[in-house]
Amino acid sequence: MMLPISINKLSQQLGLTSRTLRHWESEGLFKSSRDYESGWRIYDEEAILAIRIITYLRKLNIPLKDIKLILDTKDLKIVQRIIKNQLTSIAKSTNELIEHKSILNDFLNSLMNFNQHNTGNSLEELSHIFHNILEDSKGEKQEDIKMIDNETNSVNADNNNVRFITLPPMRVAYNIAVGISPEDEAIAPVVKWVEESKLMGITRLLGGNVKPFPSESSPEYGYGMCAAIPESVEIPAHLKEMRLPGGLYAVMPSSDDIYGSWQLLMKQLEENNEYKPDSSRLCFEEHIRNDNADGQGSQFILNLLEPVKKR
């Protein structure tokens, strides 16, 4: 029988980040409980077995919705069907890669033929070469245009989620942890103190990556969690005090894919004509308590805050 294990130890054993574990849990794949003394998530034997199965299947690119079906039903016939579907998908992808390889070879041969009679030393000549090749590439040009249009529409739709706000200067109590998955270790002491001080719902909870940052030689990184508090509140000895300058921030809700959400926000700022990132101030993930009545999802909903300034 396996003993319950904390999220940071489980992350180290399986080589998973605590964010990944929280994402899987928010998808309803397993459940954790809380250690009341430390505030950390802990996992019992059933959850650990589920996480190991998820890890195996994700290495084979089995979608999470299919993994959830496997865990919910525990039906070997369903497992067989899902694996057969995955094999079919791989075969289809292989055929597409072969087709793309053929098109690329045709494209390269056409370029080499053009190169014998064209110097390609001007943008006009290059444009003419590519235009003729694309026209002859079996209708691929229209598909490319369609893909670009879809990507543009997606970006424009996501751009509606980005807002710009001004944060006031704040006095904060904070805690920093360093490890392979340090988020929960950094967050737990701050949240526990905020709850005990009856400040939850009054304060802003802001987290973010800090030094050291991960590298090829070391996967460990730092994460800091802070709570904005009034001047009259005394900060306990196990937390530290800091002053944040506030200022202008771009704000976007995060999906469960936090890294992907940050990439999307930064892409929006690259294309914004009025604002650009301001590296002189810290970026944050604002943690907003998730009080969903059915108890589903992560403990906190995240808003991403990137400091910006006028271009």
UniProtKB/TrEMBL annotation:
Domain (HTH merR-type): residue spans on this chain: 1-73
PROSITE patterns referenced in this protein's UniProt entry, alphabetically: HTH_MERR_2
Q: Which InterPro entries match?
A: AraC_E-bd (IPR010499), Cass2 (IPR029441), DNA-bd_dom_put_sf (IPR009061), MerR-type_HTH_dom (IPR000551), MerR_fam (IPR047057), Reg_factor_effector_dom_sf (IPR011256)
Q: Molecular function terms in GO for this entry?
A: DNA binding; DNA-binding transcription factor activity
Q: Is Secreted tagged as a keyword?
A: no
- Tell whether Ribosomal protein is among the UniProt keywords: no
Q: Which UniProt keywords apply?
A: DNA-binding, Repressor, Transcription, Transcription regulation
Report what the protein is called. Answer: Transcriptional regulator, MerR family
> Which organism does this sequence originate in?
Clostridium cellulovorans (strain ATCC 35296 / DSM 3052 / OCM 3 / 743B)
- Taxonomically, what lineage is the organism? Bacteria, Bacillati, Bacillota, Clostridia, Eubacteriales
